[in-house]
Amino acid sequence: MMTDVPGIGPRSPLQRLESMLASELERLGRRRDELADLGDALLALRSQVATEDSPVRLGVEVLEQPVAAPVLGRIAMSVGQVDSVFLDGEVGAVTDVEHASHALDRARDGQRQRTIYTRAVIDVADSTRRLDALRNAGQEQHVVETFEHEFAIFGDEVVVTPSTWGDPGSAYLVIRNPVLIGAFQGWFDHVWSATPTRDHGAPVDQRIVELLALGYKDEAIARHLGVALRTVRRRVAGLMDDYQVHTRFQLGAALAHDDRA
């Protein structure tokens, strides 16, 4: 079914494909900009250190997986907030039962935890119960379809991240340099502000409103919520009727000024 464009008429399949491609290119452009900012921070750091580029001099140490758990546990217990991104539900820290147990205890004790999970984590059957327990203990959870890298930020003291880009199973890097920590924190905050909370049984309309406010298109909303595209379009049409608006742009403006958004 073709989509009507106000004042223009129905869009052809080619126009719809071109629009989808433009949206994807824009998304990739934003990600490239984020990586470029991280690269700039690395260059700035290198300009500040002495000529010998040893890891210790740069404030970066390698931590092998077999000895990581107790070291990371001690770091995590010493800070009031932990911000994390997890990529894979079957590899890396998110699969460590001891790690999950300690995170649960810290959340219950009042530590603020903001965690972004990819769909690859959410869709693993064994993850649901563990993530629900963490959320019920107070962990704030957001969801992103995909992400480039995994890391955890412990207060303003340490960043821990796999040493191989995109590979949660590789050895860890422990980063203590404040320039790099600030770069990771900025990256996390940007993604956090642009991603929805993990679904916790809220009504579909409420979830659609949240995703619309974040700029999600109908197709992405349907995929995120696991419902049919026609269901999303029907609910969006109902919201437009509720707000007495005629375009998605007008609906977005209305939601921005409404407490439900």
Give the N-to-C terminal Cα separation.
29 Å
Sheet with most strands: strand arrangement: 3-9-8-7-4-5-6
Determine Rg (CA atoms, Å): 21 Å
Largest sheet composition: 7 strands, mixed
**Taking all residues together, what is the mean pLDDT?**
77
Proportion of helical residues: 40-55%
Which CATH architecture of the largest domain?
Answer: 2-Layer Sandwich
Oligomeric status of the shown chains?
A: single chain
Share of residues in strands: 5-15%
CATH topology of the largest domain: Endonuclease, Chain A
Structural class of the helices, strands and pairings?
alpha+beta
The number of distinct helices, counting runs of at least 4 residues, comes to 10
CATH class of the largest domain: Alpha Beta
Low-confidence stretches: none
Number of domains: 3
Number of strands: 9
Rough shape? globular
Under CATH, the homologous superfamily of the largest domain reads Endonuclease Chain A
Order of helices and strands: EEHEHEHEHHEEEEHHHHH
Summarize the SSE layout with pairings.
Elements: E1 4-5, E2 9-10, H1 13-48, E3 60-63, H2 68-77, E4 81-86, H3 97-108, E5 112-118, H4 119-122, H5 127-136, E6 140-144, E7 151-154, E8 158-162, E9 172-175, H6 178-193, H7 204-213, H8 218-225, H9 229-243, H10 248-256
Parallel strand pairs: 4-5, 5-6
Antiparallel strand pairs: 1-2, 3-9, 4-7, 7-8, 8-9
Helix pairs in contact: 1-6, 2-3, 8-9
